[in-house]
Design a protein that fits this description.
The complex is a heterodimer.
Chain A: H1 2-29, H2 34-39, H3 45-55, H4 61-75, H5 88-123, H6 128-142, H7 145-159, H8 175-201, H9 204-212, H10 216-246, H11 248-254, H12 259-268, H13 272-300, H14 302-309
Chain B: H1 2-18, H2 25-66, E1 83-88, H3 103-112, E2 117-119, E3 125-127, E4 130-135, E5 141-146, H4 160-171, H5 177-183, E6 184-191, E7 194-199, H6 205-211, H7 220-233, E8 241-246, E9 250-255, E10 268-273, H8 277-285, E11 291-292, H9 297-305, E12 311-317, E13 320-326, H10 336-345, H11 348-355, E14 361-362, H12 385-394, E15 406-411, H13 415-428, E16 432-437, H14 439-447, E17 453-459, H15 463-468, H16 488-499, H17 503-520, E18 523-528, E19 530-536
Parallel strand pairs in B: 1-10, 15-16, 15-17
Antiparallel strand pairs in B: 2-3, 4-5, 5-7, 6-7, 8-9, 9-10, 11-19, 12-19, 13-17, 13-18, 14-18
Classes of the chains: A mainly alpha, B alpha+beta.
Chain lengths: 310, 557
C-alpha cells in the first residue's frame, strides 16, 4: 500500500513541472511585461526597461524558469510578487482558506443534496419526485453561476436585507456564495448518482437481496449504495479540484478575497511570480486530492484494495 | 400554519386508512414498502411545511428590519459621520508613490499623503502642503512657500530639508526620472520653509500639473528606516488619515487628529474591493458601501430614475475623451479630406445617448471641456452627413467607391460606441471593420503601429499632459502619439503653452492648437465621458466633483 502511495507522489512531480512549464510558456507569449504594467502605458521605454531589469524580467526564459523551479525545490520559495513585493506563498496563504472554505462547503452542500436526490430519484424512477428532481438538475446545470449569485444578492441582501451582499466578515456572508456555487456540482452529482444507482439496482445481487426479504432501505444503503457511489466519488474529487479554481466567478461576484481573484488580477498585471506560485500550489493541491480519491477508492472497494495489497 | 397542520392531518389519515386494507405475508412486504414510500412522502411534506413557515416568519422579520432599525443589514442610519466604506475595483497592492500608476493605490494614498497642491476641476490649483507659490518672469524658477507646523505621522517635521530629501529619492526612480532629468536642474533651499525649483527650460502650467496629484510626499525618515518595501505596506505621510489595518479583504484608515487641515470628519474609512460592478451597485443600494465610481451607465440611470433609493448619482465632467486616433501611415488615411469626412459622419449625440446612457458630452473638439484650450463656441468637425459625403467625394472616393476596408481597433469597453460609429460610416459608404482586443494587446499593437484607427478614452489633463502625449511630435512612438501626427505649428504652440507662465496667454495658445489639431483630423474626438459616482445620500457630495483626482478621496467629505 505504501509503495503505491509513494509511487503516486513521485509521479506527481513531473506533472507539476510540466504544468509549470506550460504556464510559464503561455505567460512568456502573452503581450505585456510587468515594468510596463506597473508604470502605465505612457511611461518611457527606458523607465520600463529599468524596472524590468530590477525585477529580473529581462533574463532569458530558461534561466528564469530554472530559477523558479530551483527556488521551490531548494528553498520552498515561491517567489516575490512584482507588484506588492510580498512573498507569494504568504499572499496565497492568506487567501487559500477562503477559497478552500467556499469550495468545501459548496461541495458538501452540493453533494449531500445532489446525491440524496439522485438516489431517491433512482429508487422511485419515473415518479413525480424523479421528474421534478431531474428538471431541477437541468435548470441548475444551465443557470449561469454569476447570474444566480446576483439574483441571490438582489433577493436576500437588497429586498429582504437578511444577508450581507459581499465580503467574508461573518459566517452569514458565506451562505449566499456557497448556495450559488453549489448548484453546479449538485446538478451533475444528482444526474450521475441517479444513473449509477439505476444501474446498480438492476444487478443480480440486489434482486437476490430483495428476494431474501431485505427491506428496501437496507437494500439501498447496505448493498447498493457503496457500489453506486464509486464513480461518484471520483467525480466529486475532480469537481472539488475544479471548484478550487472555478470559485473565481463566485469570488468576484461576492467580493471574497480568495485565490481566484488573486490569480486573475496577477495575470492581468503580468505578475509572473504570483501566477506561477498560485498555479503551482493549485496544481499540487489538485494532485493531492486526486491521490486522496484514489486511496479512498481503494479503501471502499475491497477488490481494489486487494490489488494494491499484493 | 393551519395549512401545514391540515396537510399533516390528511397524511396521517391516509397512512392509517391505507394500513387497513392489506393481505397477509405478501401484504406484510407490500405494507413495509408502502410504509417506506409514505414515510418519505410524509417527511417531504413536513419539510415543505416547515420551510413555508420559516419563510413567512422571515418575510415578516425582514420587512421590519427594512424600516430602518439600528444596525440591521440593509438599514441606513442618518447621519453617518463616523465611518465611510468605499468600493474599489481591486485591492491596492502598494501604497508607495514610487513606480505606482495604479488608480486604486492612488485613491488610498491620497488620504494618507499630501501633495504640494491640488488641481481643481474648474481650473487652477489649491495649495495643500504649499501655501503659496510664485513663478519667475522667465518661468525658469518656481519659489514655493511651504506650510508651517506640519508633521508627518511618524512625528518628523515637514520642512525644506525633508522636501529636498524627498526630491533626491524621487528624481532617480523609474517613474520620476523623465520629468526630473528633463526639466529640473535642482532644488535650492532658501530657508526652513521656502525653496526654489530651478528648471532647465521655462515651464508654465505643466510644472504645476506634474507636482500635483501624483507627487505624494512621504516621510523620508521612514523611507530610510523601512526602505521601499516597508513603506509600501506602511505608508507615512502628512495626510488626514493613517493606515490602521490592511488585511486581505479591506484597508482601514483611521483619522489623524493632528492633521494640519483640522481633524477629519470621519473616524474611520474602509476601502473594500468589489470587482463586479453590478454587485457593487446592489451593495450600495443595500447600504453596505457608501461610495463607488465604476457603476455601469445603465445602473446609474436606473438609480436616477428611481429616486426612492438610499443612494444618488453624482456626475462630474472628466478630462478624458473617447478619442479616435488615426494612423497616418496607413493609406488611405493620410488623405486629409477622407479623415474629415469620417469626423463629420459620426453622430456624436446618438453615441452619447445610447452608449453612455446620456452621461457623456458629445464633443467634436480634441480637448475635453475641463482642459485649458477648450472653446465652448467652437463646434469642431460636427455631425454633418452631407458634408461628410461631399468630402468623401473630394477625397476621390465618391460614395465610398474604391475605398478599401478601414479597421477600428478598440477594447471591449467601447463596443457599443464602435457599433454606432460603424453604422454611421456605412451611411456614407465607408466599410468599417471593428477589432476588439484585450487592453494590453491594444497598447502593444498601438505602439507598433499595427492599426488603422484606434479608440480609447484618453486623459488629457492640462497642457502638460497634452504635450507629454498625444499631440506633440516628441510623443511619437511609445509616448502616446501612436498615429505619428507631426505638425510643426502644433509643436510650436504646445511648447509655448508649456512654457508660458501667464495663464490667459497659455489658454490662447492651447485654443489655437486645439483648432489646428481638430481641423487636421488626425485625432477625431467623439465624446467626453463623465465620471459617475454612486454615493449614499447620507454624505454631502458637493466636494466629490470639485477635484479631479482623487474625486474619491475621503478627505473631501
Amino acid at each position: 500500500m505504501y509503495k503505491f502511495v509513494i509511487k503516486r507522489i513521485l509521479i506527481t512531480i513531473p506533472v507539476l513541472i510540466g504544468v509549470a512549464f506550460i504556464i510559464f510558456t503561455i505567460l512568456a507569449m502573452t503581450p505585456g511585461d510587468p515594468g510596463r504594467l506597473i508604470l502605465g502605458p505612457l511611461a518611457e521605454e527606458s523607465a520600463v526597461a529599468q524596472l524590468n531589469h530590477e525585477l529580473g524580467y529581462d533574463r532569458p526564459f530558461i534561466v528564469r524558469f530554472a530559477n523558479f523551479i530551483g527556488d521551490i525545490v531548494l528553498k520552498l520559495d515561491f517567489g516575490t510578487s512584482y507588484r506588492s513585493g510580498e512573498q507569494v506563498i504568504r499572499e496565497l496563504g492568506a487567501r487559500l482558506p477562503y477559497t478552500i472554505t467556499l469550495a468545501l462547503l459548496s461541495m458538501l452542500l452540493g453533494s449531500i443534496i445532489g446525491i440524496s436526490l439522485g438516489v431517491f430519484s433512482a429508487i422511485e424512477q419515473y415518479s413525480v419526485f424523479d421528474q421534478i428532481s431531474r428538471f431541477l438538475a437541468m435548470i441548475f446545470a444551465s443557470i449561469p453561476n454569476f447570474w444566480f449569485g446576483m439574483m441571490l444578492i438582489y433577493i436576500f441582501a437588497l429586498v429582504f436585507g437578511l444577508l450581507p451582499s459581499y465580503g467574508v466578515e461573518s459566517w452569514q456572508s458565506y451562505i449566499l456564495p456557497v448556495v450559488s456555487l453549489s448548484i453546479g456540482p449538485m446538478a451533475s452529482l444528482l444526474r450521475l448518482s441517479r444513473t449509477t444507482m439505476l444501474e446498480t439496482i438492476r444487478q443480480d445481487y440486489v434482486r437476490t437481496a430483495r428476494a431474501k426479504g431485505a427491506t428496501k432501505i437496507s437494500v439501498v444503503v447496505k448493498h447498493a449504495l457503496k457500489n453506486a457511489l464509486l464513480p461518484v466519488i471520483t467525480i466529486m474529487g475532480m469537481n472539488f479540484g475544479r471548484l478550487l479554481g472555478g470559485a473565481l466567478i463566485t469570488e468576484t461576484v461576492f467580493s471574497m478575497p480568495g485565490v481566484g481573484m488573486y490569480v486573475v488580477s496577477a495575470i492581468r498585471n503580468k505578475d509572473i511570480p504570483a501566477v506561477m506560485g498560485s498555479t503551482f500550489i493549485l496544481a499540487a493541491l489538485f494532485s493531492l486530492i486526486m491521490l486522496g480519491v484514489d486511496l479512498l477508492y481503494a479503501y471502499i472497494d475491497p477488490r481494489v484494495k486487494a490489488k494494491y495489497m499484493k | 400554519m393551519s395549512v401545514a397542520a391540515w396537510i399533516a392531518a390528511k397524511g396521517t389519515v391516509f397512512c392509517l386508512h391505507g394500513s387497513n386494507n392489506r393481505m397477509q405475508k405478501d401484504a406484510q412486504a407490500v405494507k413495509r414498502s408502502e410504509k417506506v414510500k409514505l414515510k418519505w412522502v410524509f417527511k417531504a411534506i413536513l419539510m415543505i411545511a416547515m420551510l413555508t413557515m420559516t419563510m413567512s416568519g422571515v418575510l415578516a422579520g425582514g420587512a421590519e428590519e427594512k424600516s430602518g432599525d439600528g444596525d440591521a443589514v440593509g438599514a441606513i442610519e442618518y447621519p453617518r459621520k463616523d465611518r465611510m466604506v468605499i468600493a474599489l475595483t481591486s485591492m491596492p497592492d502598494s501604497l508607495l508613490p514610487i513606480n505606482n500608476s495604479n488608480g486604486m493605490n492612488n485613491r488610498v494614498m491620497s488620504a494618507i499623503m499630501d501633495t504640494l497642491w491640488q488641481a481643481k476641476r474648474e481650473g487652477g490649483y489649491e495649495g495643500r502642503l504649499a501655501e503659496k507659490w510664485e513663478a519667475s518672469e522667465d518661468g525658469m524658477t518656481y519659489t514655493v512657500y511651504l506650510r508651517k507646523g506640519v508633521t508627518f505621522h511618524d512625528g518628523t517635521d515637514f520642512n525644506t530639508a525633508t522636501m529636498k530629501a524627498w526630491y533626491e529619492i524621487i528624481k532617480d526612480s523609474a517613474s520620476g526620472k523623465f520629468f526630473y532629468s528633463t526639466y529640473v536642474d535642482g532644488l535650492t533651499i532658501i530657508d526652513d520653509y521656502t525653496l526654489e525649483y530651478n528648471l532647465k527650460v521655462p515651464l508654465g502650467d505643466y510644472f504645476m500639473n506634474a507636482l500635483a496629484n501624483y507627487s505624494m510626499i512621504f516621510s523620508t525618515e521612514a523611507y530610510m528606516k523601512l526602505g521601499e518595501d516597508g513603506l509600501r505596506k506602511n505608508p507615512v505621510g502628512t495626510g488626514p488619515y493613517t493606515l490602521k489595518e490592511w488585511s486581505v479583504d479591506q484597508i482601514v484608515l483611521e483619522a489623524n487628529p493632528d492633521y494640519w487641515g483640522g481633524p477629519p470628519t470621519k473616524q474611520e474609512v474602509v476601502f473594500k474591493a468589489l470587482p463586479d460592478a453590478s454587485a457593487a451597485v446592489l451593495s450600495a443600494e443595500a447600504g453596505e458601501i457608501d461610495l463607488m465610481d465604476y457603476a455601469p451607465a445603465a445602473s446609474a440611470k436606473a438609480i436616477e430614475e428611481n429616486g426612492k433609493l438610499d443612494v444618488r448619482v453624482v456626475k462630474a465632467p472628466s478630462y478624458q475623451n473617447g478619442l479616435i486616433m488615426v494612423n497616418l501611415e496607413a493609406a488611405p488615411l493620410d488623405n486629409h479630406a477622407l479623415r474629415k469626412a469620417i469626423a463629420h459622419a459620426i453622430d456624436r449625440e446618438f453615441v452619447v445617448d445610447v452608449a453612455t446612457e446620456g452621461t457623456g458630452i458629445p464633443n467634436a473638439q480634441v480637448l475635453a471641456p475641463t482642459v485649458s484650450g477648450y472653446d465652448p463656441d467652437y463646434t469642431g468637425l460636427a455631425y454633418d452627413p452631407n458634408a461628410a459625403k461631399a468630402l468623401l467625394a473630394e477625397a476621390g472616393f465618391p460614395g465610398g467607391q474604391g475605398l478599401p476596408e478601414i479597421s477600428l481597433m478598440i477594447y471591449d469597453g467601447l463596443t457599443k460606441q464602435a457599433e454606432i460609429i460603424q453604422e454611421n460610416m456605412r451611411n456614407i459608404g465607408i466599410t468599417l471593420k471593428v477589432e476588439i482586443v484585450e487592453l494590453n494587446t491594444w497598447f502593444e499593437r498601438a505602439r507598433s503601429g499595427d492599426f488603422m484607427l484606434n479608440m480609447l478614452p484618453w486623459g488629457v489633463g492640462t497642457v502638460g499632459a497634452a504635450h507629454m502625449y498625444l499631440f506633440h511630435s516628441d510623443s511619437i512612438g511609445t509616448r502616446g502619439n501612436y498615429g505619428k501626427y507631426s505638425s510643426p505649428e502644433v509643436d510650436d504652440l504646445l511648447n509655448k503653452a508649456m512654457q508660458e507662465t501667464d495663464r490667459s496667454k497659455m489658454i490662447a495658445f492651447m485654443q489655437e492648437a486645439n483648432r489646428i489639431i481638430t481641423e487636421d483630423a488626425a485625432f477625431i474626438n467623439v465624446y467626453t465621458p463623465a465620471e459617475v459616482f454612486v454615493v449614499n445620500k447620507a454624505w454631502d457630495t458637493d466636494k466629490v466633483i470639485q477635484y479631479f483626482i482623487p474625486g474619491m478621496s475621503p478627505y473631501y467629505y
